[in-house]
Amino acid sequence: MTEKSGADILIEALGDLGVEVVFGYPGGAVLPIYDALFRHNAAGGRIKHILVRHEQAATHAAEGYARSTGKPGVVLVTSGPGATNAVTGITDALMDSIPMVVITGQVPTTLIGTDAFQEADTVGITRHCTKHNYLVKDPAKLGNTIHEAFHIATSGRPGPVVIDIPKDVQVATARYTKPGPIRHKTYRPQVKADQSAIEQAVDMLAAAERPILYTGGGIINAGPAASQLLCELARITGAPVTSTLMGLGAYPASGPQWLGMLGMHGTYEANLAMNKADLIVCLGARFDDRVTGRLDAFSPYSRKIHVDIDRSSINKNVRVDLPIVADVGHALEDMVRVFKARRHPKPDLAEWWRMIAGWRAVKSLDFAETGSEIMPQRAIRALWEATHKRSPIITTEVGQHQMWAAQHFGFEGPNKWLTSGGLGTMGYGLPAAIGAQLGNPKALVIDIAGEASIQMNIQELATAMQYRLPVKIFILNNEYMGMVRQWQELTYSSRYAESYSDTLPDFVKLAEAYGWKGIRIEGNDQLDDGIAAMLDHDGPVLVDCRVAKLTNCFPMIPSGAAHTDMLLASSEVSGEMDDEAKALV
Ligand SMILES: Cc1cc2nc3c(=O)[nH]c(=O)nc-3n(C[C@H](O)[C@H](O)[C@H](O)COP(=O)(O)OP(=O)(O)OC[C@H]3O[C@@H](n4cnc5c(N)ncnc54)[C@H](O)[C@@H]3O)c2cc1C
Ligand SMILES: Cc1ncc(C[n+]2csc(CCOP(=O)(O)OP(=O)(O)O)c2C)c(N)n1
């Protein structure tokens, strides 16, 4: 068997792993890899490299690709600033459980520790923001390391893995053969649940009077079949379903048992139902502080079941009565099977649904119109109206627009909603849309943005143009870092310190400068036509939609408050427990 350079081994291993797209940016410490990629493509190879304009964007594009396709995202960057620029996206992927492999160049092994040109301690810097990381010193180990990295990134709780490869290791030669299935000596995620725990869970569900299915990003991670199984479990138990920001789409928004998102900007009915439930079945969610609010007031009357593939996630924030360590897809399959096998009649939850109907009647997502000015919620609903039949993929930036999109754009299936939840990274949406479009060439992909966030990775307009990606950007332009302004209004007596988006560019001209089509929408009378014009254009389009500037995003549970302290647009309704609810618990 002939020996190959480390760089050639890397490219061959990526091919063996089925990698089709790599998002990257070149530099001195990865030139041997770029050369191997060049030769691979010249010989008709299948790995496509997407040249982003900033390494942070490579990581978010890889996240968007991964979240929308279920395949791992792959990133290639140089040493030093290339690697440090990637750190935000790596951390983002860790927080949101996104499978990603990041290959970083490193200075030659003999120079490590000498403050060499573009040297950074990538393994040290990324130790706490990766699921695992490697510094490869021996080219003979490179092939196996790459396969192991993909195994770790994609199995169990998915996450980012960094492989740091010194330049001399890229050049040195070794043998490579595709390894068989990876069996790590210690890392063995538990995929199947303990069956007695499943039986207990089913008994608890059958006996509950006020159950709720609290679903999260883990269901999206578990693949589309898990969403189907969730619908089946909901159907046979009759239980209401809510979801975190990360789980939207796992249960269809048009489904009869859907309560909407829960948490800080969740619906009144979802949060009140969590508060008054007697059983919470947490399926692939992690009791995040945006969801629980004040911990000592969180769902005080319920017993809790937690299904999670990551053992360390269980009892981390909230103590549960029944932990189930498993892939949630498998656990759902088992629960549905056992529930049916026991011939449990559909529980009678009429009284519970009557209470929920009362909370639903509050219509917590309703908003007041203000004449000709576009309300941001109205803009999202109009966008949904015009596009939902095409089942678009929606990405977002971070801020009010993100929450309005979560509240008002109904998702009917998984992998259509890509957002930065855990880290809340402004600048995520455009590169994520690029990644999603590459993974789903025929899909309609829209980044719902704020005028501040979009500027954080605006250079990626060029990437979309270079690869002829027909991505759409829909900016809800309120001339404020709206989410910051809202908090300042509510908690700092409207002292708007540095939250005005001053000196904004002319977004239409900016779009045109990059070869995009630019459209401005300035009033309700232009909204539908503007959206139609965006959809009619088969290339990339940026829409600058001017919206009412001082609108707040409600409902809102102030940080650290209880679910019952929710602020609604109409302050007449509070989350206080009514007499009927008191009688039940
Ligand atoms: C401005 C802003 C406002 C926000 N407001 C809200 C809000 O109102 N409501 C809200 O919900 N969120 C909100 N968020 C998001 C919030 O910060 C968290 O990101 C989110 O709540 C976490 O979702 P999750 O619990 O589904 O967990 P994820 O981060 O999606 O984690 C998934 C969990 O499932 C597990 N898991 C992964 N794969 C599997 C599998 N195959 N099988 C089983 N388990 C698996 C993981 O171990 C993990 O515990 C907001 C974010 C921002 C930026
Ligand atoms: C990288 C980064 N820096 C700062 C923040 C804090 N932050 C959260 S929302 C927000 C304002 C976003 O403004 P904009 O994009 O205009 O959206 P809007 O809230 O107006 O919809 C800021 C600064 C963040 N989430 N990410």
UniProtKB/TrEMBL annotation:
GO terms for molecular function: acetolactate synthase activity. Pathway: Amino-acid biosynthesis; L-valine biosynthesis; L-valine from pyruvate: step 1/4; Amino-acid biosynthesis; L-isoleucine biosynthesis; L-isoleucine from 2-oxobutanoate: step 1/4. It comes from the Bacteria. Residues 5-123 form the Thiamine pyrophosphate enzyme N-terminal TPP-binding domain. PANTHER family: ACETOLACTATE SYNTHASE CATALYTIC SUBUNIT, MITOCHONDRIAL, THIAMINE PYROPHOSPHATE ENZYMES. Belongs to the TPP enzyme family. This is Acetolactate synthase. It comes from Sphingomonas echinoides.
